From TrEMBL:
PANTHER family: GLPR-RELATED TRANSCRIPTIONAL REPRESSOR, SCHLAFEN ALBA-2 DOMAIN-CONTAINING PROTEIN. Keywords: ATP-binding, Nucleotide-binding. Coiled coil: none annotated. The keyword DNA damage does not apply. The keyword ATP-binding applies. Residues 19-136 form the Schlafen AlbA-2 domain. This is ATP-binding protein. It holds the Pfam family SLFN_AlbA_2. Transmembrane segments: none annotated. GO terms for molecular function: ATP binding. It comes from Antrihabitans spumae.
Amino acid sequence: MFTDSLVATMRAVGADLHSVEVKSAAGGFPSDVVETLSAFANGGGGTLILGLDESAGFTPAVGFDANKIRDALAGACADKMNPPLRLAIEIEEFESALVVRADVSELDPIAKPCFVEARGAYQGSFIRSGDGDRRLTHYEVTQLLANRTQPRSDLDVVEEAELDDLESSLVADLVERARRRSPRAFAELDDATSLLRLGAVARASGGVLRPTVGGLLALGVYPQQFFPQLFVSVVVLPGTRMGEQSPDGARFLDNQTITGPIPVMVLDAVAALIRNMRKAAIIRGISREDRYDYPLDVIRELVVNALMHRDYSPEARGAQVQIELYVDRLVVKSPGGLYGSISVDMLGSSGNVNTSRNHALAAILADLSLPGSRGESICENRGSGLPQVMESLRQAGMSPPTFDAAPGRLMVTVPQHALLSPDTVEWIGSLRQRHLTDSQHLALAMMRTTGRTTNTMLQAWGVAPVSAGQALRDLVIRGLAVSTGGRRYASYQLAASVPSPFDLQVNYAADEQNSRPPGIEMQRDAILQAIQAGHTTTRALSILLGVTHRTVARRIAELIEAGAIEPLGPRRSSKQSYRLVHKNGEK
């Protein structure tokens, strides 16, 4: 039973879980249950269990009236919450007693905040924090309410600024591109009127044209003269946690404050990270391509997204975009959280509705060239940025980013676990093979790090079956790989003449390996690679690998038992997903 496993976990840790709240309710319906309902609905959802005594080791509460509490909970959901919550409330038997369980789903973003009706939105809205509930701040509630309308903070007039505070070269580039894009709307207009039409300037008191917040940030000579905190901070840390020190006592290996207009901040932030990343080169014919710990287009896209979609309302103008480079991950933090109907599980997928908190700023940036580029726009403003991030990471053999969104903030984390790390790229270069394809780079990296690869494992990274087969056969012809297992269950390992240590991701017992058909091992390996590539649900794995849902579920159960992967949600969750468990214990 689902409740049994939850209680077993709570007994093991000696406390409630982040997504599970337990209350005794032996003396009647607890008044603070409504706070937990609000917190779960505003966050990622959760499970409420009434009738267990936490102080007695999560044992059934003496004197608990299950029917009475169930009816009281249903009434609270319908009458005390705004918007009302429609939950599946069940009475379950647990250790010869009855408990009440309710699973609370996260609300649609535009329906938030869920609050206690009698207290109002600003006093009655909560979010989960650890194993308890925390009241949302005034700013966090304001952000949730702002999701229901189109914010206009980027169109606010900066009364202290003048047109001379705009960089002439940036203005010229913007207006020229706007005239090429829409000659009918801009061809006959002077620069000032064009800027007015683009939302980069607006009429202030007395009819004087002055820069808007969005116009100043995109085109200003030095926007920080008016908004000192609207910059990008880049810190490079020596360990895996903030506060850890290097052997010589340094807390930061680098600490940069990036200022200027957004086009300049994007370039300078990327440059600061380049200075602090490892580099290796891949030879493509007669050209050389540098590879870093993180693809440069991924870094740039994340920085652009943070600056373009962050909150620029007056309450948030004291917060900067933060970039933190740890030894094992890259983190980008921005104020404002998600906007509109977008939820975390939608980020990075194609086909989503393109929403922008700062619609005028986004349009300006789409019409601006990236300095030093050959007319390349800073952004496309088509919702293609994060999907391209996902694709670039897959091509580099890297896991997709994780998104941690809460009211008022968004954090994007890109793990450094990579098949094509700079060390591996350097090793591939040492093989002195010309004209290797991207698929062959991935195949060699898999063979080096996991001991083998298969056609299906390459498919997990988006390589078409025919292309995967051609790539692998060519590696055999080149003398870099050998094939075993026959045509149907072909598995490829590095040839004996290619020295390279490897470390298998999952070390099954030898007798188990010998007793299982090779197809099962291939399915397991393919699922591991697919999860690392970002296909983390049973349905996604089934579609990608062309294997039945039932077979994928069976392989997932085996991998969980082997300690290779772990589930991220409750066992019965309709949105269940999985992640790898690496040998050093990191996720």
